[in-house]
């Protein structure tokens, strides 16, 4: 059998029929299929983080545990996006993001597992292919994805057109490309977190919590959580801490999904976008943020990434302290969206080996006498 035919048959066997939760069955344009990529159900447990303001209790949903090389929130979106690509008989995936994009890494790995080729359009301020081989890039290269270094352009006004142009060239060579927008945050991808919301319902979230907090960097996860919360009639209040753009941008993004689904409500009425905590900018880390990552790791054993979660956590804690009325109640659930490979991009190295308290505890046996090192 021809290899391409064999590969095509293998890919199609991965498709599974999708049945939405009953509370989402009235939505328009519900995906027909999904592919099983994420590890479920990711656990929820108390999180005894330091500096939690008095009166609040905090738990964490571990969507950093959706997989190994596929870990993080992006894999839930890819279950629907890659199924759509397979159903449309595409053999190549195009997507885009920053050099250390978690979404691009997850897309590259998942595409290869499904027998699809993958092109990653990675935004960089440097006009060079010398982007290194650390963090997410290491995995991108390990699975053989093709990397195109592009300027730091907006998706709709720049990157999309670049991908479309290359997709047309690929078509002339007999291949068919499926374009996934930045972060996988399309209406189709949003169903990943509608499904996750049903998972959370089964984990008793509606009864056990008053508020949900998540990071928002491209909008798809926040959109799915907010829309799921609305459609179920839940009384939870949803918050999303912005780490890349501004509240107006994300409200607009969620409103697009609401219109696509035929839902007559405004994003501003179903989710609270929290501005003011992106620091020096998207992907830019301050020293105190990196030190905070180490403190959380040392005291709770949970690793958070420098691009998304640490900024959202800092924003959440600050708002709890300075503006507690922003929250509906005191029982808060934080959704950990992953990003652990971003810790391996080099920015943490010097902090761990030189200055961080309790992180470089390395001893040689010959130097230890009768007492244990402490």
UniProtKB/TrEMBL annotation:
Its cofactor is pyridoxal 5'-phosphate. Residues 36-338 form the Tryptophan synthase beta chain-like PALP domain. It holds the Pfam family PALP. Transmembrane segments: none annotated. Keywords: Pyridoxal phosphate. NCBIfam families: ACC_deam_rel. This is Tryptophan synthase beta chain-like PALP domain-containing protein.
């Amino acid at each position: 059998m021809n290899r391409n035919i064999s590969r095509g048959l293998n890919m199609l066997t991965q498709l599974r029929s999708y049945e939405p939760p009953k509370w989402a069955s009235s939505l328009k344009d519900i995906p027909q299929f999904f592919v099983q990529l994420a590890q479920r159900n990711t656990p929820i447990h108390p999180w005894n983080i330091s500096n939690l303001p008095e009166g609040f209790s905090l738990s964490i949903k571990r969507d950093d545990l959706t997989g190994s090389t596929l870990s993080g929130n992006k894999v839930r979106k890819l279950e629907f996006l890659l199924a759509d690509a397979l159903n449309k008989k595409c053999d190549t995936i195009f997507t885009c993001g920053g050099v250390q994009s978690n979404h691009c890494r997850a897309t590259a790995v998942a595409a290869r597992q499904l027998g699809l080729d993958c092109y990653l359009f990675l935004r960089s301020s440097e006009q060079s292919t010398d982007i290194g081989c650390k963090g997410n890039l290491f995995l991108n290269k390990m699975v053989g994805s093709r990397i195109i270094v592009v300027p730091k352009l907006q998706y709709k006004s720049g990157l999309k057109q670049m991908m479309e142009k290359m997709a047309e060239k690929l078509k002339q060579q007999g291949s068919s490309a499926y374009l996934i927008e930045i972060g996988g945050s399309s209406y189709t991808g949003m169903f990943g977190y509608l499904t996750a919301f049903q998972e959370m319902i089964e984990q008793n979230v509606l009864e056990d919590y008053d508020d949900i907090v998540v990071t928002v960097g491209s909008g798809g996860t926040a959109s799915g959580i907010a829309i799921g919360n609305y459609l179920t009639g839940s009384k939870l209040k949803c918050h999303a801490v912005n780490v890349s753009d501004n509240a107006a941008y994300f409200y607009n993004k969620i409103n697009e999904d609401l219109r696509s689904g035929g839902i007559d409500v405004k994003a501003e009425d179903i989710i609270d976008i929290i501005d003011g905590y992106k620091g020096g900018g998207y992907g830019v880390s301050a020293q105190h943020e990196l030190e905070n990552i180490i403190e959380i790791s040392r005291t709770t054993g949970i690793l958070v990434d420098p691009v998304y979660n640490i900024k959202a956590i800092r924003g959440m804690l600050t708002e709890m302290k300075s503006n507690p009325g922003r929250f509906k109640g005191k029982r808060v659930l934080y959704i950990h969206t992953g990003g652990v490979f971003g810790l391996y991009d080099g920015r943490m190295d010097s902090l761990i080996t030189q200055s961080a308290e309790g992180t470089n505890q390395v001893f040689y046996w010959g130097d230890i006498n009768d007492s244990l090192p402490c």
